[in-house]
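User: Please fill in residues for this 607-position structure.
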């Protein structure tokens, strides 16, 4: 017997200025269900959550809430009463004994590391988000409605929230641009697309394959009936499909860049010759034993201590760490905005940088989108040395014609991020610095950004808390761990987690026995074993062989004569393609793991 829903919307519709946000939508959420809601920015996802939370009424349809159901809601942009302290805000609505309520509030705020006496107006973006989460969770809700809950949270806070929600018994409806977060937590997917709600009985991990199958079926049907009905969305839908089909090539290129990064690091940070060709060509930054501290209260806050790295042309470097750990300071030291306390910094010649500022200060809210890209005049922009019409370029970033002459201040947060990305990527540069570019971006725009960065010829410095984005984009990750500890790891966030050296307990002092020498502890390994080194040396040849075999199979599969021939042979060829692709991926992952381990052991020898 089916469990009755705790919360449901039946045949709901909402219109703004005569245009439908969504139409005839029905949805139900039961106890313990885990659902993610996905869709382009502006399709009505946040509006749907507000309807379910009771903040706005639908134009048509009914909302059902089981009597007594408790709903916790976190909006995308929290509205916090400036007259309240964090303790008063979190404790709103708590019933029962006052002393018990105070204890619950204290425990909730301790969990999110924000003092109860702080004024809401004094909070940073990350603190505001954590306080909003504490407010939603403290009442032990039956339903949680979360709209971009990871915005402004650092990776540590995101992983805490993942664990907290995974253990919570409430039904969950989640909007997020964080793909790793949704993959971990969701068991069902809702897709709000062109005003209609589609439902899939799997979590976000299966979304791309499912949605692409739907779009492919639509394209086939439209080709048979009327190609004009997709005129408004033809480019974006075709672009999504094309981008997904290019993913494998882009990932192969990323693996190759990571392999090159690991090869350079595996021999240690040997000093480079100070040649003019090197500094004016391949070298971008080199830090040698750099330290930086700042006065903090009655003491000193150390950002980095004796940190060394070398960044070359074409590297894509992610920078991670807690909020306030010193990520911006590290970027400032690299670019010359902040002087180190000790150590040396070398910078390549002729660096031309473009900067994405998460506060979006480069956008004038009174200008139109068109004026923002053309500096007030003209109808073309130059992108990577190619002249583009501004309308075509705006379309690349998923803006429609009605928005071209609209003012920046009318855009949503995600749309402003898209416009700022379009603006800075049109600037001539060979060094791109992106500070939290993924905030407020929908999943399709994230895919677009990944493609643009894959095609970028220069060097990338990326500050982000988006773990999946790091995995898909960067060649190495610099972790600002706190207390002066900064390390670099080959690969993305998942590689960082695998390579990070777990803290070891102190070794016990050797026992002292009279008239006998103290037993000698075994020495710690500082090099790969013989078999590991032999495997590392042989893997590049194996990877090249598998890549060549895979390319040959793909060429054979693309041959129209073969595809029209022996079906059994074609099936065997297809199966072999899958086996080869899997073997190639395994070999690449193994090479990265061994190269990273060799680099870590080399670092231990140096220490």
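Assistant: Residues filled in for all 607 positions:
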């Amino acid at each position: 017997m089916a469990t009755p829903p705790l919360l449901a919307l039946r045949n709901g519709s909402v219109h703004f200025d005569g245009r439908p946000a969504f139409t005839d939508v029905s949805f139900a959420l039961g106890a313990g269900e885990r659902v993610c809601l996905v869709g382009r920015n502006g399709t009505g996802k946040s509006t749907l959550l507000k309807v379910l939370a009771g903040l706005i009424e639908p134009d048509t349809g009914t909302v059902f809430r089981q009597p007594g159901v408790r709903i916790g809601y976190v909006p995308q942009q929290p509205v916090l009463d400036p007259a309240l302290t964090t303790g008063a805000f979190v404790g709103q609505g708590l019933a029962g004994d006052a002393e018990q309520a105070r204890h619950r509030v204290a425990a909730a705020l301790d969990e999110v590391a924000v003092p109860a006496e702080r004024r809401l107006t004094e909070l940073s973006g990350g603190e505001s988000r954590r306080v909003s989460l504490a407010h939603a969770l403290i009442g032990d809700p039956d339903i949680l409605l979360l709209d971009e809950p990871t915005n402004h949270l650092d990776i540590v806070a995101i992983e805490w929230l993942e664990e907290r929600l995974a253990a919570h018994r409430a039904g969950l409806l989640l909007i997020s641009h964080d793909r790793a977060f949704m993959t971990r937590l969701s068991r069902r997917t809702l897709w709000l697309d062109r005003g209609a709600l589609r439902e899939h009985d799997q979590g976000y991990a299966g979304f791309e394959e499912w949605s692409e199958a739907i779009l492919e079926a639509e394209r086939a049907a439209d080709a048979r009936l009327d190609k004009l009905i997709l005129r408004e969305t033809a480019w974006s839908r075709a672009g999504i499909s094309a981008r997904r089909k290019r993913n494998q090539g882009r990932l192969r290129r990323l693996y190759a860049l990571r392999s090159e990064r690991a090869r350079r690091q595996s021999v240690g940070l040997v000093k480079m010759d100070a040649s003019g060709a090197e500094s004016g060509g391949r070298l971008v930054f080199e830090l040698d034993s750099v330290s930086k501290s700042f006065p903090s209260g009655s003491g000193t806050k150390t950002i980095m201590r004796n940190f060394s790295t070398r960044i070359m042309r074409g590297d894509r470097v992610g920078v991670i760490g807690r909020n306030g750990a010193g990520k911006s300071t590290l970027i400032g030291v690299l670019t010359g905005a902040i002087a180190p306390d000790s150590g040396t910094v070398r910078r390549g010649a002729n660096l031309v940088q473009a900067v994405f500022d998460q506060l979006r200060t480069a956008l004038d809210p009174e200008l139109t989108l068109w004026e923002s890209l053309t500096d007030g005049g003209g109808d073309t922009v130059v992108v990577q040395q190619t002249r583009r019409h501004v309308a075509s370029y705006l379309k690349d970033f998923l803006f429609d014609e009605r928005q071209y002459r609209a003012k920046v201040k009318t855009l949503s947060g995600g749309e402003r991020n898209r416009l700022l990305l379009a603006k800075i990527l049109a600037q001539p540069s060979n060094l791109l610095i992106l500070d939290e570019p993924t905030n407020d971006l929908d999943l399709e725009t994230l895919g677009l950004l990944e493609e643009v960065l894959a095609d970028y010829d220069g060097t990338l410095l990326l500050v982000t808390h988006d773990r999946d984005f790091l995995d898909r984009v960067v060649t190495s990750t610099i972790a600002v761990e706190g207390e002066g500890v900064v390390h670099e790891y080959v690969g993305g966030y998942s590689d960082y987690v695998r390579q990070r050296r777990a803290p070891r307990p102190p070794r016990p002092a050797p026992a002292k026995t009279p008239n006998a020498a103290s037993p000698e502890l075994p020495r710690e390994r500082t090099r790969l074993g013989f078999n590991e080194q032999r495997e590392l040396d042989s893997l590049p040849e194996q990877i090249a062989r598998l890549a060549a075999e895979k390319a040959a199979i793909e060429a054979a599969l693309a041959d129209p004569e073969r595809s029209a021939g022996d079906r059994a042979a074609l099936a065997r060829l297809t199966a072999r393609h899958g086996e080869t692709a899997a073997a190639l991926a395994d070999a690449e992952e193994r090479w990265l793991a061994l190269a990273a381990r060799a680099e870590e052991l080399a670092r231990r020898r140096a220490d």
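For context: The CA atoms of residues 48 and 510 lie 66 Å apart.
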